[in-house]
Structures are given as structure tokens and as C-alpha cells.
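Whiteboard transcription, Tuesday session. T.W. wrote the C-alpha cells on the left side:
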């Protein structure tokens, strides 16, 4: 329901959409990253990491100082490797365990 308010980043490979995420910019200087997904056949090739890096650059260019997100707990190592740190205890969202995470932008 918030896609129309978001800035969408996409990863393409030979013209095929292989990954995407969105940034919600309405709470500057904080932005919310969400809906990060990479097509199953293209996972474990650095696409999610590249999307996270690009999201950081775009957010910084928009005036953000912090990116926040709700990570599914199995994906926390991906976000931690990109500089995100956990905030608080795990919680359920849409029937899936998540944890709040954030990254300060340098």
C-alpha cells in the first residue's frame, strides 16, 4: 500500500528484473528500507548486497543520515555484513519473525 510513496531500486541482468527494494523517504533524515527481494535463481551472487549499497548511496543523496528496516531473522547476517545493527528483540510481523535493524550513513 505504500509503493506509490516509495523510491524503488531495481537490479537488472540482461534486461531481466532480478532484484528490487524500496526506500520510504518521508521521515528524513531517517529512511525506511523494505521489500528487498532477489529472484531465487539469482541469489547468493551479491545482488542483495549491491542493492543495499545503492540504497545507502541514494538515501545519502536524499539527505538521510540513517536507514532503518525490519529484517526477517534468517536474513540478519546479510544486513549485518552491510553495516546494519540490530535494535531490540525479535518480533512477529505478518507471521514471520523479524528484528529491527539500522545503519548510520557516513
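and on the right, the sequence the group agreed on:
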Amino acid at each position: 500500500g505504500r509503493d506509490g510513496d516509495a523510491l524503488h531500486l531495481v537490479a537488472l541482468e540482461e534486461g531481466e528484473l532480478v532484484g528490487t527494494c524500496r526506500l520510504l523517504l518521508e521521515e528524513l533524515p531517517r529512511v525506511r528500507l523494505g521489500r528487498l527481494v532477489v529472484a531465487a535463481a539469482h541469489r547468493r551472487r551479491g545482488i542483495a548486497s549491491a542493492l543495499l549499497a545503492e540504497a545507502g548511496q541514494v538515501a545519502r543523496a536524499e539527505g538521510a543520515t540513517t536507514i532503518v528496516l525490519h529484517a526477517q531473522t534468517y536474513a540478519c547476517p546479510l544486513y549485518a555484513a552491510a553495516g546494519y545493527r540490530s535494535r531490540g528483540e525479535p518480533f512477529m510481523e505478518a507471521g514471520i519473525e523479524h528484528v529491527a535493524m539500522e545503519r548510520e550513513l557516513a
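Someone added at the bottom: The two ends are 31 Å apart (CA to CA).
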